[in-house]
Amino acid sequence: MPYLIAFKTILFKEIYRFVRIWPQTILPSAITTSLYFLIFGTLIGGRVGPMAGMSYVDYIVPGVILMSVITNAYGNVVASFYSTKFQRNIEELLISPIPNWIILAGYVGGGIARGFAVGGVVGIVGIFFTDIRPAHPCLVASVFLMTAALFSLAGFINAIYANSFDDISIVPNFVLTPLVYLGGVFYSIELLPDLWRKISLANPILYMINAFRYGFVEISDVDIRTAFLIIGGAISVLVIWSLVLLRRGTGLKT
Amino acid sequence: MNALSIRNLRKTYRNGFEALKGIDLDVKAGDFFALLGPNGAGKSTTIGIVSSLVRKTSGTVEVFGHDLDTEREAAKRCIGLVPQEVNFNQFEKVLDIVVNQAGYYGIRRKEALRRAEECLTQLGLWDKRNSVSRHLSGGMKRRLMIARALVHAPRLLILDEPTAGVDIEIRRSMWEFLRKINQEGTTIILTTHYLEEAENLCRHIAIINHGHIVEHNAMASLLRKLHTNRYILELRNAASFVPAIEGYQLQPLEDHTLAVDVPLELGLHSLLDQLAAQGLEVVSLRNAANRLEQLFIDLVENQRVDATRKTA
Ligand SMILES: Nc1ncnc2c1ncn2[C@@H]1O[C@H](COP(=O)(O)OP(=O)(O)OP(=O)(O)O)[C@@H](O)[C@H]1O
Ligand SMILES: [Mg+2]
Prior knowledge:
The complex is a heterodimer. Chain A is mostly helical. Chain A is built from eleven helices and no strands. Chain A has helices at 2-20, 22-25, 27-48, 56-86, 90-94, 100-127, 137-161, 167-181, 194-200, 204-217, 224-248. The mean pLDDT of chain A is 91. Chain B has helices at residues 43-50, 72-78, 94-104, 109-122, 138-150, 168-183, 195-201, 219-224, 269-277, 291-311; strands at 2-12, 18-28, 32-36, 58-63, 66-67, 79-82, 156-160, 187-191, 204-209, 212-218, 228-235, 249-254, 257-263, 282-287. The A-B interface holds A 1-3, 5-6, 8-10, 13, 84, 87-89, 91-99, 249, 253-254 and B 13-14, 48, 51-55, 72-74, 76-77, 79, 81, 83, 85, 87-90, 96, 100-101, 103-109, 148.
């Protein structure tokens, strides 16, 4: 019970943080994704023609939603936890009788909440451009939840290792963005030459985007079970990694 | 029952610097304890280890009988920490900072709000509860950290230089406040560079220097160790000579002032008489330093001399 209260305290503090600064946290994604829908979906999409047998805008909407979930979940945790560390108010948590997994759960919960908020806004924007609806709501929900958790964990680990504000933007800019763009948000990998198709299969984000898209329109470049195995496996690895770092006090305790 | 027991505690920082070289420390439950030492002595390092912010290299720490290695959470529940440097979120509101801290200790929100009101009121910050914390003055920030440390009603309150940069009036009211909560049963450990503060408030004292405890004693017995008091005398007329008076060490400072070491058994009376006999009229006198300060300087200086001898 005390742990539950501590968890809720961290979670609500995290949610309150991104809601308070919504013009920085929610608005930008809403604007960029609207532009994606408008430009790629409506303006260019007409010329691109159908993708995997459906209109181009219908094809990209799920991927764009998940893309915003990924970047926002990651961005929320990395920025919030790093600034907590930077301002040293992490000490408030370190002196408190809270097990490390509660601290981790609180921050990951905050990242998921941000992913949900932004993904929700983007989804609502999407309604104006497309009329696809989730064919498998449970699948959509679980891919969302797992993906958001995974990237929240990754953001957490990034924040632990980070020693400067530069360090928290390297991974999002140089790793995450390319992987997301090459992860089949805007195209089916079936269109790629064989070699690039095989290389793409090594990109874990491809599996998440395709599983998410399958939840809406029942088409996927990959096997959904494989997707779940990959996401679940990655989550397990990152959970263990985070807990080891917290236990050692890496980057947090001298 | 000891509120805090430290045995053979060592800390070597990652850069190889040995900040604590095997210290032992006991603080009895209910005590008001001063941990003193010059800059860089190892006070904050010790406090950091006790409050789980710094990893120890070796040794044991027990808080109310709870070993940090085996019962860390129970030990943490007993401690309230006021750190040396501001460490709250500068963008959060005063009330949220205190209420959230209560939440981390598992206190329900309703109860947390009640306690936060109590603590903030006691520290004169209730009016500021909706201010963003970075807009507080330096003294208010310190008091906010005290309120935050008290919200879970810790049995042991550790304050790392709580009165640094606080004005005289507020310092005095802080002293009153700390005395009161100590009388109500909270054990207090305090570090400070104002020795007058330690002498006023604390019943026991430890002095740490270069990672060693050089003194660990009751304040009263420590002060009894002081055999001489140093005074500054101001003379009506400039002294053209340094008077020699048996039993007293006199030393000219300026034309009109003399420093004198007065052994306790001789006292001031005979000094003043003999000065008057030599034609020197004393118009005022004051303590050169407060008594604890004198001891402190002796202890710390002695070590410095020893160290130079050893390295020489
Ligand atoms: N993270 C660190 N890495 C390396 N050395 C450190 C670290 N933190 C502290 N030290 C060193 O350890 C020694 C003890 O520092 P500490 O902060 O405990 O001193 P202190 O007694 O609190 O001093 P002050 O009165 O100035 O606050 C100092 O020499 C300091 O330079
Ligand atoms: Mg210090």
